[in-house]
Amino acid sequence: xxxxQDRKTIGDLHxxxxxxxxxxxxxxxxxCGQGTYPSAVxxxxxxxxxxxxxxPDLIAARGSDIVTIDAKDHMPSTGTNRYAISTTxxxxxxxxxxxxAPTPLYYVFGDLxxxxxxxxxxxxxxxxxxxxxAYHLVSTxxxxxxxxxxxxxxxxxx
Length: 158
Prior knowledge:
It is a single chain. About 40% of the residues lie in helices and about 25% in strands. By secondary structure, it is of the alpha+beta class. A hairpin with a 3-residue loop joins strand 5 and strand 6 (about 115). Helix 3 (about 85-100) packs across helix 4. The longest helix has 22 residues, at about 5-25. The protein is globular and about 45 Å long.
């Protein structure tokens, strides 16, 4: 198995975990983005810089609310307590948010904490950046608990 396939498998499991957590809170969830495309389309996208490569993994609705989710696993760093989000991902997320306003885009990390692209940019604009400039590093304590953003499963069951 290649490194990409390993990451894809881990990412798919995290997406399923996020989708299950959302369903437990009353959300209807559907996959979207690169993972839903035929292999020929995914392969062609891999060779481009298109923002479609960064399209959200999930779309969810509850009542009249609709949200998009980009599931980000392998975060936070166990040594620094920061999330590392690529500049490419943030730029695509800001563009998607602008084009599809008012539908929000949420990054849901491996610890099930949540940030928006705008929050990542805000919290890192004046802060330490990765030396390559390729990543925004944001402290995990800035992120919102999953239940605060999407509701709690306990409240739904009550």
